[in-house]
């Protein structure tokens, strides 16, 4: 079967454009793969959480009375504010870079499609001219009538019709895809501009924060001059923490002994014919083991003991905020929060300790199998020893220091006699 020269060229051209178009469409229609979408979502969540933390810290700064007793607390809060704002700039910059990358890719796809459309339009012009010539010279009829038979002629007629329809459909598809991608680029441009506005806003806030840094520097100078009082306050806090730690250790030690007794009791042991209670190495009952496993499975997913707040002192040894060459040890974390905030259980368990500790107000200890959580600096405690509490159940109210106006809860996590870092157990905020 022989075709007119101009028409015979078109199928090969169509195949080439179809292949190119397919590759372009694959790149264009999947501009937001799952990994990039997830990355963007994580960045946005991190940004929102940092903004929330900054808001909490700002509120705490407003509520913290500016007096001699609160100077150190204000200094620590300002330091936390600076860290949060600096951290906020990172996800913002990452989001902007991601948006820029997507915009660049979309723009490349659109430019390629525009080139294809231009070439297709030129091709259509050639086809229209050829069709006009064929109509004038009856080339189309000659092409059909030169067939070897009716079947060959029918196939030729079908080819001409389907090819024309195909080319029209391809042109419409490209135009439609181009419009879709143009809209997408517009959306991404808008997103990028929004992110840039946010970044400029944060940079402006950073300028305001520099003023707070200046205030912090002034506070630091004042605190260094007041070193004698700070050391005295630090010693009082150290003694209070020592009493707290001794009380915690005593209660946990007694609970471990009671736990072993429960595990060795006849009621807790599995019974089989001819079995004996003597010589068992069991240290936990089945119920305690089950609860321990459930608690351990929540590592990194436990709720915070307060609905909002910022960590002002982390777990372990750390340098004193202002006193040189002095280290402080924290067996848990300190969370500054709003006055009268409710302190809630992070997991279901049993109240095994309730005691007033000078300097830490009331302390509540919950047992979760072989794990323990400690909540101190509480007022208006609403539970008693022996109570079984559910996760997120209210235990009491955070105490507020009458001198500084600071409301702070001290939180610890233990496994038997081992102190654990609470930040490894609660959700990241």
Task: Lay out the secondary structure.
Elements: H1 5-29, H2 34-63, H3 71-137, H4 139-145, H5 150-225, H6 227-264, H7 286-296, E1 310-313, E2 316-319, E3 327-330, E4 333-336, E5 342-344, E6 349-357, E7 361-368, E8 371-379, E9 388-389, E10 394-398, E11 408-415, E12 418-420
Antiparallel strand pairs: 1-4, 2-3, 4-11, 5-10, 6-7, 6-9, 7-8, 8-10, 8-11, 11-12
Helix pairs in contact: 1-3, 1-5, 2-3, 3-5
Account of the 3D structure:
With 429 residues, the chain is α+β, with helices and mostly antiparallel strands. It folds into two domains: 5-225, no CATH class; 229-267 and 283-424, Glucose Permease (Domain IIA). Helices cover 59% and strands 15% of the residues. The protein has helices at 5-29, 34-63, 71-137, 139-145, 150-225, 227-264, 286-296; strands at residues 310-313, 316-319, 327-330, 333-336, 342-344, 349-357, 361-368, 371-379, 388-389, 394-398, 408-415, 418-420. The strands form two sheets. Strands 1, 4, 5, 6, 7, 8, 9, 10, 11 and 12 form a ten-stranded antiparallel sheet that branches. A hairpin with a 7-residue loop joins strand 2 (316-319) and strand 3 (327-330). Helix 1 packs antiparallel against helix 3, helix 1 runs parallel beside helix 5 (150-225) and helix 2 (34-63) runs antiparallel to helix 3. The protein is elongated, with a radius of gyration of 36 Å.
